Amino acid sequence: MAPNEDVPPRILIVTAHPDDVDFGAGGSVAVWTEAGAHVTYCVVTDGDAGGFDPAVPRSEIAGIRRAEQTAAAAALGVSDLIFLGYPDGRLESTLDLRRDLARVIRQVRPERVVCPSPERMWDRLFASHPDHLAAGEAALCAVYPDARNPFTFPELMQAGLDAHVVKEVWMMASPRAATYVDVTVTFAKKLAALRAHVSQETDREGKLEERLLGWLTHNACQAGWPEGQLAEGFFRLETG
Ligand SMILES: [Zn+2]
User: Fold this and answer.
1) Distance CA 154, CA 147 (A)
2) pLDDT of residue 215
């Protein structure tokens, strides 16, 4: 388990869609910002294939979802958001995406990168949306080798962005999760962040809280913690 006090100054969280960070790591983000970390979100797509209301013009979805993610971030103490604007539902780990993520890493210069697992979870298929797998793969390639090798993407150096070594990567929704953050105290903030994604009808049947408590209790159980505690789980990789 990772002690909650072990929080680096700068954390970059890469996700495929608006709301991914809130499902996968919302409670942890609140723990980290409360501990003084500067957290930056890099959201690769605008979630423009999401939403349920046919009366809302599709062209408006991207703006709505950016605004919802921004409001959700505020509930967790995050105000630094980068949207890359890739199309939702068709994400691939391309060289363009690797370059864009390497650029963000060199700009933000985080000690820790949080991203989706590129490895599928067989017992929770919906956590392993293909966009998540692609964003995770590209983020890992950006951490190693793209951001740290000054000769990869020389245009980044020419733009004044020096190479940067990320010390650790924490993967969300990983079948190898073995690092747990205690989110018992920040659970209410995670819930508030998820409810900010109004267009996604995250709490359609009023069962969101119950579902989250189920998942987070299961994680705490996996961590071997006593009943009543809540945890978010990650697969942590040292990359420094
Ligand atoms: Zn997603």
Assistant:
1) 11
2) 96
pLDDT of residue 32: 98
- Report pLDDT for 4: 62
The Å distance, Cα 56 to ligand 1 centre, comes to 20
Ligand 1 centroid, distance to 27 Cα (angstroms)? 17
Per-residue buried b or exposed e for 202-215, using 16+ beta carbons within 10 Å of the residue's own CB? bbeeeeeeeebeeb
* pLDDT of amino acid 202: 79
Alpha-carbon gap, residue 131 to 114, rounded angstroms = 15
Ligand 1 mean position, distance from CA 135 (Å): 10
**Distance from residue 119's CA to the centre of ligand 1 (Å):** 15
Indicate the angle between helix axes 61-75 and 187-195, nearest 10 degrees: 160
Rounded distance between C-alpha atoms, residue 65 and residue 149, angstroms: 34
H or E element that contains 131? helix 130-141
User: Which two three-digit tokens encode residue 150?
Assistant: 């000054």
Structure tokens at 52: 């349920």
CB of 94 closer than 8 Å to CB of 131: no
The alpha carbon of 103 and the centre of ligand 1 are apart by a number of angstroms equal to 22
pLDDT of residue 3: 52
Sign of the CA dihedral with 104 first, then 165, 20, and 175 last = positive
- Give the per-residue pLDDT at 51: 81
Task: Report residue 56 as tokens.
Answer: 């809302």
Extract the residue ranges of the chain whose pLDDT is less than 50: 1
Q: What is the pTM of this model?
A: 0.96
